[in-house]
Amino acid sequence: SKPVNIQRDYYTMATVDGDEAEIIMYGEIVQEQPRNWWTDEPIEGNYIILDEFLEDLKLVSDVKRITIRLNSVGGDAYAAIPIHNRLRELNADVTVIVDGVAMSGGSLIMCAADTVRVNASSLIMIHKCWCRIWGGFNADELRKLAASNDAVDKAQAAIYKRKTGMSEEEILAMMAEETYMTGSE
């Protein structure tokens, strides 16, 4: 396969040789580049942007082994879930090494790996879905929002259940508590 070396501010992706690739994912997971509300200028930061990441992932999709080095406080579940699912679809053997933290959406991406290695001093955090709301809402609209959050929670719990073998009830209880775990835990 053709060598690949992609350097973005928020991650790098490169083929080590024809059979292996390494992806360094250090950043917040977002659907699109955050922009300043008033100026529409891009907000600087380390962002793993869904469409860009998935497009770049195609360039290494034919390798046999992928190592992902992860340090992410999470971000948008609607971006993390498709990244998780696309990584799961690859024919490659995927290893994730948690260099720092795999929180929230970062922990979902971590669970896509066939092998997960978490340093003893690294942290994993899982929690229930939350969202920011701005404006006025009636009770029906708030119930609808709560129902959509419940659906996201169940989708996330399915990812954790597949990876850990734990029950959905136990996982949802851990998510409700916003559970932090060290590498050894």
Walkthrough of the structure:
Strands 1, 2, 3, 6, 7, 8, 9 and 10 form an eight-stranded mixed β-sheet that branches. The chain has a two-stranded parallel sheet with strand order 4-5. α4 (139-164) packs across α5. By secondary structure, the chain is α/β, with parallel strands linked by helices. The N and C termini lie far apart (39 Å). The longest helix is centred in the last third of the chain and has 26 residues, at 139-164. The protein is built from five helices and ten strands; from the N terminus they run βββββαβαβαββααβ.
| Unreliable segments of 5+ consecutive residues | none
Distance between the termini: 39 Å
Average per-residue pLDDT, rounded, comes to 91
Radius of gyration: 17 Å
Note the main sheet. Answer: 8 strands, mixed
Number of strands: 10
Element order, helices and strands? EEEEEHEHEHEEHHE
Question: What's the shape?
Answer: globular
Strand content: 25-35%
Number of helices: 5
Helical residue percent? 25-40%
Structure classification: alpha/beta
